[in-house]
């Protein structure tokens, strides 16, 4: 452990930056929640802390634990006191980090009670796996791995009554392509369990939620995170992303056909004013309406550079009132179920 750094943070000579600021742009570092770390385990990658000098605005990533060190319980416990919720890993060591998390998941007692810590570990695994999947030339293996993690997550949700209530506690509160995808996926699983859908149906929703915006990787990052309003030409580019996602996933036998349809339809509106097909509610897959609502709900409840996050019920009110060219954008029946779901979480 870098004791000098720890002392500097403790003395407030360095300010720890708590959450990843916006999207990661060209940063070679990825966040890892400290709940994903296990005491007495040797790490096979460096762990960094994101800090700002007391004087000046420059943000730096400084090594906190070095590859080969064994994490001690007291060292991990001290992180909370230092205000460190997330550490960072170099993107080059992503495979080592995923192997480390996988090892911890295997050590975890799958049959036990779901806890926020266990679900956080699964969430972190899913989040970092998504970085690997979205940049991989071949998706098949990554879809299988994601399905395995989602299945494990689903098992926890199904095993304990009302365990879906835990999901609200572990969602990300920053808006990046990856955090958003994981949030929509986990919310989707939880809502489907709440609606007493089958495991298979829940998994379809989880997979669709995770990969629905894959096509965004074909859109320039500057456009994806643009804070000013989009021009008509930019909107046109943006509207292509469900088709891109569909094209990128359709040749993968690992991706279920039903989930593929949800991916293609996730921007369709109830009044037919959505895209790419302009489908009416009756023409959409019944789960499309759920995915459509969760996608917007997560976007509204996450802070953006140009506005704060909406509170859950304020977000739902906006959605209830949102109108397209010919009527309501969201299915009122789905919103009613979502309100019920959120009211008891
Ligand atoms: Fe989308």
Extended strand count: 5
- Broad structural category: mainly alpha
Average the pLDDT over all residues and give the rounded result: 89
Count of helical stretches: 14
User: What is CATH's topology name of the largest domain?
Assistant: Hypothetical protein af1432
Can you put this structure into words, describing what you see?
This protein is mainly alpha-helical and 345 residues long. The protein folds into two domains: 1-92, no CATH class; 108-343, Orthogonal Bundle (Hypothetical protein af1432). It is 49% helix and 8% strand. The protein has helices spanning 3-10, 73-81, 94-107, 116-134, 140-159, 177-194, 199-211, 221-224, 232-238, 241-250, 257-265, 286-301, 312-321, 332-343; strands at 14-16, 29-33, 47-53, 59-65, 86-90. A three-stranded antiparallel β-sheet has the order 1-3-4, with helices on one face. A hairpin with a 5-residue loop joins strand 3 (47-53) and strand 4. It is globular and about 60 Å long. The relative contact order is 0.09. The model has no long low-confidence stretch (mean pLDDT 89). Residues 212-213, 241, 266-267 line the site of fe (ii) ion. Fe (ii) ion binds next to loops.
């Amino acid at each position: 452990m870098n004791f000098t750094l720890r002392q500097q943070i403790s003395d407030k000579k360095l300010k720890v930056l708590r959450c990843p600021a916006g999207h990661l742009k060209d940063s070679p570092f990825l966040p890892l929640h400290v709940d994903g770390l296990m005491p007495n385990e040797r790490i096979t990658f460096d762990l960094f802390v994101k800090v700002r000098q007391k004087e000046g605005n420059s943000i730096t990533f400084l090594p906190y634990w070095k590859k080969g060190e064994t994490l001690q319980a007291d060292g991990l416990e001290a992180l909370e006191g230092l205000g460190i919720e997330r550490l960072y890993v170099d993107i080059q060591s992503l495979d080592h980090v995923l192997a480390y998390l996988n090892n911890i998941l295997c050590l975890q007692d799958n049959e036990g009670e779901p806890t926020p810590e266990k679900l956080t570990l699964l969430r972190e695994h899913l989040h970092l796996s998504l970085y690997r999947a979205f940049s991989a030339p071949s998706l098949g293996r990554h879809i299988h791995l994601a399905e395995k993690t989602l299945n494990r997550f689903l098992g926890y949700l199904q095993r304990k009554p009302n365990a879906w209530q835990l999901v609200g506690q572990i969602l990300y509160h920053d808006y990046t392509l990856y955090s958003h995808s994981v949030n929509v996926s986990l919310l989707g699983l939880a809502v489907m369990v709440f609606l007493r859908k089958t495991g298979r149906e829940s998994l379809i929703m989880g997979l669709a939620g995770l990969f629905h915006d894959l096509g965004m990787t074909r859109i320039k990052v500057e456009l994806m995170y643009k804070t000013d309003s989009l021009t008509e030409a930019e909107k046109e580019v943006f509207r292509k992303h469900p088709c891109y996602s569909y094209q990128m996933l359709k040749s993968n036998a690992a991706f279920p056909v039903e989930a593929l349809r949800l991916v293609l339809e996730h921007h369709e509106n109830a009044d037919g004013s959505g895209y790419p097909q302009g489908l009416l509610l009756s023409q959409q897959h019944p789960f499309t309406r759920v995915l459509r609502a969760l996608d917007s709900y997560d976007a509204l409840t996450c802070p953006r550079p140009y506005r704060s996050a909406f509170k859950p019920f304020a977000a739902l009110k906006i959605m209830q009132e949102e109108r397209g060219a010919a009527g309501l954008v969201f299915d009122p029946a789905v919103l009613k179920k979502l309100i019920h779901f959120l009211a008891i979480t």
